[in-house]
Amino acid sequence: QEKIALVVKSLGNGFFDAAAKGAENAAKEIGGIEVIYTGPTSATAEGQIEIINSLIAQNVNAIAISSNDPDALVPVLKKAMDRGIKVISWDSGVAAEGRQLHLNPSDTNLIGETIIKLAADYLPEGGDVAILSASSTATNQNAWIDAAKKILPEKFPKINLVSVVYGDDDSVKSTNEAKGLISSFPNLKAIIAPTTVGVVAAAQVVTDSNLIGKVNVTGLALPSEFKQFIDNGSSQAVALWNPIDLGYSAVYLSHQLIGGTEAKPGAKFSIGKVGEITLDDTNSAAMAAPFTFDKSNIEEFSKIY
Amino acid sequence: MTDITHEARHIPDRLESPLRGAVFSWPTLLLIVGVVLFIVNSLASPYFLSPWSLSDATFNFTEKAIIALAMALLIIAGEIDLSVASIIALASTAMGVALQFGVGVPGLVTIGILTGLICGVFNGFLVTGLGLPSIVVTIGTMSFFRGISYIVLGDQAFKGYPAGFDYFGQGYVWWVVSFEFTLFLVFALLYYVLLHHTNFGRQVFTIGNNPVAARFSGVRVERVKFILFCLTGLMSGIAAVLLTSRLASTRPSIAVGWELEVVTMVVLGGVSILGGSGTIQGVVIAAFIMGLVTFGLGLLNVPGIVMSIFIGALLICVIALPILWARMRRRAAR
Amino acid sequence: MKTVILSREFWLAAIVAVMVIATNLRAPGFAAPDKLAGIFNDTAMLMILALGQMSVILTRSIDLSMASNLALTGMIVALINAAFPGIPIPALMLFACLCGLVLGAFNGILIWLLNIPAIVVTLGTLTIYRGIIFLIAGGQWVNADKLSPAFVQYTRIEFLGLPALSWYAIVVAVAFFILMTRTSLGRAIYAVGVNPTASVYAGIDVGRTKFATFLISGLLSGFCGYLWVSRYVIGSVEVAKGYELTIIAACVIGGISIAGGVGTVAGALLGALFLGVINSALPVINVSPFWQMAISGAAIILAVVLNARGEKRGSRLILREAEATS
Amino acid sequence: MTLPQRKPESMPVSSTPKITLSGITKTFPGVRALHKVALELYPGQVTAVIGENGAGKSTLVKTMTGIYQPDEGEIRINGELVTLSSPHAAFKLGITAIHQETVLFDELSVAENIYLGHALKTRFKTLDWAAMREKSSKLLKEIGAGHIAPDTRLKDLSIANKHLVAVARALSIDADVVIMDEPTAALSYKEIQDLFELMELLKKSGKAILFISHKFDEIYRIADRYTVFRDGEMVGSGLIADTNQDTIVRMMVGRSVDQVFPKQETTLGENVLTVSGYCHPTEFADINFSLRKGEILGFYGLVGAGRSELMQALIGITKPSKGAVKIGEDIAVIRSPAAAIENGIVYVPEERGKQGVVVDMPIVQNISLPSLRRTSKNGFLRLAEEFALAREYATRLDLRAASLSQNAGTLSGGNQQKVVIAKWLATKPRVIILDEPTKGIDIGSKAAVHAFMSELAAQGLAVIMVSSELPEVMGMSDRIVVMREGRIATTIEKNDGFDAEALVRAAAGIGEKAA
Ligand SMILES: Nc1ncnc2c1ncn2[C@@H]1O[C@H](COP(=O)(O)OP(=O)(O)OP(=O)(O)O)[C@@H](O)[C@H]1O
Ligand SMILES: Nc1ncnc2c1ncn2[C@@H]1O[C@H](COP(=O)(O)OP(=O)(O)OP(=O)(O)O)[C@@H](O)[C@H]1O
Ligand SMILES: [Mg+2]
Ligand SMILES: [Mg+2]
Fold it and tell me: Which positions, given as ranges, span the membrane (chain C) (predicted)?
């Protein structure tokens, strides 16, 4: 019996619940795997550290984590690796020395481009946009934002990124930050929220402030949570990858590490029905391109995740 | 009745031996709770009784417990400091800033501890110098200290602490005994002596029981309280060094929400929130109990939030049960 | 007239007004009526909660469990709404009040009958109530898609240009004003805080009065539980975490003395408004929101220092001249 | 000892008692405050309750107003058995009281203080502020306190004015039974006269009045009947007209008065303390006096005369605005009690429970507190030394306690006072200030304290004794300073002979133009 712990940023988040579903599927397919789905209730590094300490004590075979802080978790994850536990990060990564491999849901640059494109597609004349992110220490969000900033001048010269704010994946904070954006930038045309919590909060603010049609909300969203905002027009389109596949792949990767496969640049891993990945020179790999949801398909996907 | 006898009358020092008193004391009650929890934990999870597990468990509470020692004195003296977690954030930030200037390990530690002390002085001045109620002052400084941390760091984090700095939060003194834990035990001993065996400790109790009578008796009430605020700040600074080292990084949101956990630990340790009574032994055992509960339930993969129900219920029960018990006995006596 | 000008509330109102005007100079349009209404709406819940906390603080107690009570009640009504979308929302609001009341009563009973200090009881229930949320919700959040449209609408419907949420705050404030100044319970609350012994002599049951204030704070927390979930369209374990101290901060800034017996409804409202205005003003004048925490901390400290100034002078005035000139 | 026989009552024909108490017993831990007390109050009459400090008068008042529940006994109103379960129940049954301590609300307005707990309501059941203000104003005028505005906050009033508000509060309740526990203690001459006129009015309107006072002239001026208490027991009652002061005094103390004060003659030494030009912004002004070795200097005055404030300034609790203190020949600057102890001045405070003992700490720790430096070594406690010190002084003061580790709060009042005195003597002071040293302690302990005080003086200590009890000051002092409203009214040497009336006049300001 292999024990694989799926540690998430915070419990209750629909995105991670879906990932856990995928993890269970993988465990069933492989057989002989117990998945421990756990995480703190608030998205903090200290909470994750306490959990990892107890996972180490339970002698789990692998820890697959979506981290709240790339640096603060390194010491404790190193300790886990020292005790023979395989550690991978997925979704939101840990600094290289704290894990054996990292699974990006998608190519970072691609995501960075996608989130801008989602806004730009509906702004033929260009205009002001702002980003509402998760917490300021979230690795994945920061990487996407950096990629987005890089690509802006080349591909989207008419789009003007006026501000980046942080909602800490907390609905209230995200709401307040979205409001702040709207009042500080009267010409704002779009809010880009590459986080499932923030995007809902921003869409709600736009709906409440009667700005539907004036401010377009976009970013990364779970179809089931976000459907109503596509329906009411506060958002034209959002994107996301499949969280179920992400959790599924995390378990597959962990299983292979436990089985003795070594994680080194160039190594190939099979991830069941999703396919195969190859590690790059930072021992990370990316899955498929993000998938875009709009009026045409959200109904269908909202039933899945 | 009213006649005055002038023959010297002997008054014994004590009616019962101090030992007997200790047997029926709060720390003993807590100790029993602790032992029971220990046994329950080892039955509930096969992983519990391993030296490394237990050692790992100590990391979850030592920093808080180190602050709780000083907080216990402060609460016994009838004050409270809710800014301790924010002091950690500010001290950690100060270390991070120093790091940017290439300060070495000894310098970092000094700056962390010193920042804590300065925050303590600030609290102490506001409370004793201006005569303000500590609970609101420290709610204010709680936002203020962490706020400074946010101003400095914003959405950034400090990382890249030098090699050697990791020893404080991650190093082991001997086998499974971590540096943090050793430090905690040493401090526990120091605070035990300070509170229970020195004039200063006696004055702390007196102030908590009756600040007016203490003042009338020549105790420099304000000064004692000021020192206690400084001590609490200092201990928070030390906790900041440990935590920063353990996390190997600094963020402004570090240790958020710890203040209430520290207070809970102190109150659970049998320190009266109204001041005047309490023991260091109790606080130490309470720290262990909180560590045991969280770790034991953690091994069963019970989320932290559910553990907090246990802690909260334990807190209310250990306070309420003696009251109910006394009441029932009184009723039975009638 | 002179007393009005010298009162804390007047100065606090003046400071809030100056802040609004100054912000408007830097960022014209900030003081536009609809923007101000927006700020008021954003502060509405804090106002309601601050009033509840005020009634508790006036009796020399403190309620640290308000935010947890709010979150728990919010989760309960959210779950009910998700499971039975047909239940009319006003009924659900009433139920939220009732839930909050029960949770408040639990605090109150322990404080009244067992005489445990309020800070200990509510420190315990602070964690207990929040933990229960996780249990009843099974660790899930209740998201927008699970809530009925009516549930979300009941804080947003506009009436005379103000959203319902603002009206709730106005109604609570008026009710509170009447409670505190025109009813025996209100005056008993003050009396208990000013002098518990004298209150006993005056025939006031100190324990029961404290109990009543915990009912009030519980009820208002419960009500805000519904408002919160409806407004932010999410029910989760994390709702309003750490907010208990913001509520107390609003009270303190509003001049409500932690030592009991001193404070007014207007003060509590202005204290909340002060924090609300800072929240809204900072982003508008391009101060990084990261400054907000330090500023509100400094404001609290300043408020306590200033309030203490007004209260010093504990002497008894034995000399006749001293009384005449005071 | 023989007690005077209770006189057969020559009751006015028309009168049946309005309220009857019988067999009332009330005990506090360690103290039996009331024992099988009986009392009757008649409509239209004033009954004076007389007794020494601590005789149980105020406790009786509190049982009659529902604040304390008696352990035994019954209370009847108009012959009907009632239980006064709460102060509210007492209001409802028509009993109102002015309590000895002014128990009022500092932060609230005068009108509110008067009406709290029985507020006037409008039709809508809300408080009727306008009516309350108006009626308060009228009430205050009636008792001669028209100068107090109903809107003033109570904390801005002096103690005398606060007391008048308390009187107004009591009268705002339309009650048949009016209880007044030392209502005149804090009032000046004119205010007392106003109060008496009012009492006459109340009498005429048929109210049954219970009046407590230590001043015989007042009792003779206003009372129709008397009841005497001693040590919690009723030892006599009857019509004032049928008795005289001597009988009452004998009933009160149960022995002749002068043997209580065993002041030894001492030869006075050099000046140890000289106070000159001492002032405080609000509490006292122009204080000049000196104190000699072996002397007992009495400070007399009405309650609220500012004596305690003066003494507290001397030991650095409050800050004087100007003036100088010399200890021996040297100017001493005393900014804190710690400094006072170093200079050899100690103060046994008036409010024993609040300022003196730490009730939840053991006797031994109470006694050693100001001497910790001597009993410890390098800041570390040495329990053996502490116990030795405590044992020495406990024995010297003949403390009655089960053990030295007992909490001080479990002792009787008198023994608590001994603990406080022991605590201060243990510091080996040169000047000891005793503020109301026998307040609320039983007769036996009182005598012990007096004996001890005199012994201290004989041993060369300089003693300042603040007291509001005339016999005590007159019996114990070598010299008496009389204070009134924060100033020294007069100083009387023993050689000039102490005259009770002169002292009272000086303290109350009688014979001067009313201020
Ligand atoms: N709450 C209490 N707890 C314990 N003892 C008390 C309490 N109240 C009064 N006593 C004691 O009961 C006795 C009677 O006190 P009481 O106040 O009735 O005296 P009194 O006759 O009013 O004296 P005075 O003339 O000084 O006002 C005293 O020994 C006092 O110490
Ligand atoms: N202004 C006041 N308000 C309320 N209580 C007062 C006030 N002044 C005095 N008291 C109370 O009355 C009691 C006696 O007062 P106290 O008079 O000691 O004042 P003092 O000026 O020191 O006079 P004394 O000359 O009687 O010692 C004390 O218990 C005190 O708390
Ligand atoms: Mg009395
Ligand atoms: Mg006095």
Answer: 36-58, 70-87, 93-113, 120-142, 162-181, 188-204, 210-233, 245-278, 290-308
C118: left (phi over 0), alpha (psi -120 to 50) or beta: alpha
Q: Which of B143, B260, B274 sits opposite C126 (nearest CB)?
A: B260
The torsion angles phi and psi of D395, rounded to 5 degrees, stand at -70, -45
Q: Report the mean per-residue pLDDT for chain B.
A: 88
CATH number assigned to the domain comprising residue B168: 1.10.3470.10
Lowest-confidence segment of B19-23, B204-208, B263-267 by average pLDDT: B19-23
d(CA D256, CA D263): 16
Give C186 or C310, the one with higher predicted confidence: C186
Cβ of residue D227 lying under 6 Å from some atom of ligand 1: no
Sheet containing strand D72-77, edge to edge, reads: D31-41, D19-28, D72-77, D80-82
pLDDT of B203 reads 95
Decide if C109 touches B, using CB distance below 8 A: no
Instruction: Give average pLDDT by consecutive 10-residue segment, chain A, 305 residues.
Output: 90 86 91 90 86 90 91 90 92 88 86 88 87 81 88 86 86 86 87 90 90 90 87 89 88 90 84 82 82 84 78
Q: Is the CB of D403 inside 8 Å of chain B's CB atoms?
A: yes
pLDDT for the residue D444: 63
Enumerate the residues of chain C whose CB falls inside 8 A of the CB of residue D107. 190, 194, 261-262
The DSSP string of D359-371 is TTSBHHHHHHGGG
Q: Pick C140 or A24 by higher pLDDT.
A: A24
Residue B18 is assigned to a structural domain of this protein: no
CB atoms near residue C142 (< 10 Å): 22
* B230 within a domain of the structure (yes/no): yes
Percent of chain D, pLDDT > 70?
90
CB pair distance less than 8 Å for A14 and C143:
yes
Structural contact between residues C118 and C210, judged by C-beta atoms closer than 8 angstroms: yes
How much is the pLDDT for D355?
A: 87
Q: C93: which 2 tokens?
A: 């609001």
Which chain C residues touch B146 with a CB distance below 8 Å? 293-294, 297
| Model pTM above 0.90 | no
Q: How many angstroms away from the CA of B45 is the closest CA of chain A? A: 9
Question: Could you say which residues from 272 to 311 on chain C have a Cβ atom under 8 Å away from some Cβ of chain B?
Answer: 288, 290-301, 303-305, 308
Size of chain A in residues: 305
* Dihedral over alpha carbons C132, C135, C136, C142 (to 10 degrees): 100
| Residue with CA closest to ligand 2 atom 2 | D159
Q: Do A57 and B295 touch (CB under 8 A)?
A: yes
Neighbours of D279 (CB within 10 A): 17
Determine the Cα–Cα distance for residues D251 and D230; give it in Å rounded to an integer: 8
pLDDT digits (tens, 9 = 90+) for C258-290: 888 889 999 999 999 999 888 888 777 777 777
Domain count, chain B: 1
Q: Is the pLDDT of residue C199 over 60?
A: yes
ipTM of the modeled complex: 0.86
CA atoms of D136 and D127, how far apart (whole Å): 14
B17 domain-assigned: no
Distances (CA, A) of C301 to A18, C242, D506: 46, 19, 50
User: CA nearest C277: which of C256, C294, C296, C260?
Assistant: C296
